[in-house]
Design goal:
Largest sheet: none
Structural class: mainly alpha
Helix content: 55-70%
Distance between the termini: 21 Å
Number of strands: 0
């Protein structure tokens, strides 16, 4: 990992982590009946995915500093894989917003205000820094499946709170409308399939860039 890439990675990861923290804190002070704020915001996959990526970004930034100080010459694998998991989760959020929520609720709401960061800016910045600055190892197919974990865990929680418990019994309302007409299972299959597709695409692009940097043909 070159010093130039370490500097760019450090700047972008600090930017992502700091703005995400600011947005999450801000949600506790917003008094808007339309927006679920405070602790209620943690019900949303978007919030959780951004927090995961912010943590990963902070860890990567820490090791960027060590690279710049000459302590190490590459990011540790666990940090890369954690960032990969966060990027996959954010790209799922981005795809869901663009192809599902924007047509449903409108671009002005989904991409305006604090949503501009969590739905658009954070996914794009994280993807850019990950693919172009942090591609220093090869992600195996088995390791790529780690990207499914946040979605699978959230899907299980969402199913329990929305379908099993239900809003009338203290659970969650079906705010993503994933259980509309009782069709939670096909929606779950589609979401997991989409997540897997994102996992494989991000892995392919990451390994492709890594292969170019090392002048090899090892992509898969």
């Amino acid at each position: 990992m070159t010093k130039t890439k370490a500097v760019i990675s450090l700047i972008l990861n600090c930017l992502t982590a700091s703005i995400t923290v600011f947005v999450i804190v801000l949600l506790f002070f917003i008094d808007d009946p339309v927006i679920d704020n405070g602790w209620e915001s943690f019900m949303f996959f978007t919030t959780d995915a951004n927090i995961l990526t912010a943590i990963a970004s902070a860890i990567v930034a820490f090791y960027d500093i060590r690279i710049l100080n000459g302590k190490i010459d590459a990011l540790p694998k666990f940090a890369v894989l954690l960032k990969y998991t966060g990027v996959v989760s954010l790209m799922l959020t981005f795809a869901t917003v663009i192809f599902f929520l924007v047509p449903l609720y409108g671009a002005s709401y989904e991409l305006g205000g604090t949503n501009c960061h969590v739905h658009l800016a954070a996914p794009m910045i994280s993807l850019f820094s990950f693919l172009l600055c942090e591609s220093c190892i090869k992600i195996s197919l088995k390791e790529a499946l780690l990207g499914l974990l946040p979605t699978a865990v959230y899907a299980a929680v969402y199913y329990i709170m929305v379908v099993v418990i239900g809003a009338d019994n203290g659970g969650w309302a079906d705010f993503y409308t994933f259980n509309q007409d009782g069709r939670w299972f096909p929606v779950f299959v589609v979401i997991m399939a989409a997540t897997l597709g994102i996992c494989l695409l991000v892995r392919f692009l990451f390994n492709l860039n890594n292969a170019k940097l090392n002048n090899t043909n090892t992509i898969l």
